[in-house]
Amino acid sequence: MLKILVCCAGGLSSSFLARNLKKGVIEAGLQDEVSVDFHGFQGSHDIADQYDIMMLCPHLRFQIQGFIDQHEKKYHSKLENTAIYVIPAQMYGLMQVKELYEDAKGIVEIFKKEGGHPTCFPGEEDAGKIRRNKAYYHVHK
Length: 141
Hints:
There is one protein chain. By secondary structure, the protein is α/β, with parallel strands linked by helices. Helix content is 40%, strand content 16%. Helix 1 links the parallel strand 1 (2-8) and strand 2 (34-40). The longest helix has 18 residues, at 97-114.
């Protein structure tokens, strides 16, 4: 089962997204394949090791490097097996469960092969420039 932690600056929009995703997971019949929780970004380093991927709200792209610099050495064991990914803004707005799930699977696969934080798809190193509203592999394959 793929375990996703959705993070937002204060937890408000991520809790909305997580509720919609949980509902969508059930509607799509994916409850045996994926679980979704939410948490405020600050403090997420304490529980990161319980998840395969931390999916960050788009506005956190400006805070991600500071988070990594601050926590990666101190909490390395909690972050070493968890991918960190910034959700593209247009995907975040649409909240399509199957599309976010596909991106989560793809990012976890890349992270397992290459490591490193944050993890991104090829050509999407600048999260602010991503304009797709579908999963990466649905757009690029």
